[in-house]
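Data card: per-record layout.
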Amino acid sequence: MDLHSRKLHFIQEFLRINSEELVDKLDQFLHSEKKKYYEKELKPMSEETFGEMIDQAENDAENGRTVDARNLRKDIDQCD
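The structure for this 80-residue chain is written out next.
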């Protein structure tokens, strides 16, 4: 069974669950495992890459390629 089929099967089984306690446990397990997975995939950034990012940010700021925090907040609020 391929991954897509397994996911669909899991969803079907999940929708049949009538226990809130079991849904809570599965939810906690999912979040815990996702966190472990993403933490395992994180890799430290080199000083060179970090410096390049800082240089790019400074260049963006000097050339007006930034968004004011207040305007960004307004845009985000409008999306909700």
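Known properties of this structure: The chain has a mean pLDDT of 93. The chain has two domains: 3-41, 47-79.

See the next section for split statistics.
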